[in-house]
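note to self — DONT lose this again. spent like an hour looking for the file last time. sequence + predicted structure for the chain T wanted, 202 res
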Amino acid sequence: MTEYSVRPEATRDAVTQALGDKVKHITIALGEVTVQVAARDYHAAALILRDAPGCQFEQMVDLCAVDYSDYQGAAQEASRYCVVVHLLSISLNQRLRLQVFAPDDDMPVVESINDIWNSANWFEREAFDLFGVVFEGHEDLRRILTDYGFIGHPFRKDFPTTGHVEMRYDAEQARVIYQPVTIETREITPRIVREDKYGGLH
């Protein structure tokens, strides 16, 4: 942080005042402010954070999802999927991390904030593609990194590392085809060479 940056305590206080009872948790760690809101308040809170005096987070820098299953020590209230948004106020030179947990693990849904920051468009598509988080109100929510026929969401912790199918080009059919994964799980033990006089040593 530069000497011209707003102190994190001042950012925390401004965010707390602006959001009021929409704040579930707000913390400062390593000089960074993180605020958590409920899914029902997510869109409204994002709009306030963009426009409220003392906040003025005009730019959304990043948005991603997190799978908290089997995550030790996380204050995540038993919810599995979290959407994390990083915001920047250019006018006030301050940053904020906004968190929202999807209330339903089986069908994680939160509102889209693409109408507030249009930079959220591709980030929300990526979080949908890789984690399966649905952004309600997104006008073009479709996969962005995996193939159109891809099954599942590869960044979920229960997704197999080998995947479900593999693809290859078939010269006879002159097209790409999908087939069951042919990788066999095996344990590889490194070979250790031991020689009595290896390297001239006795």
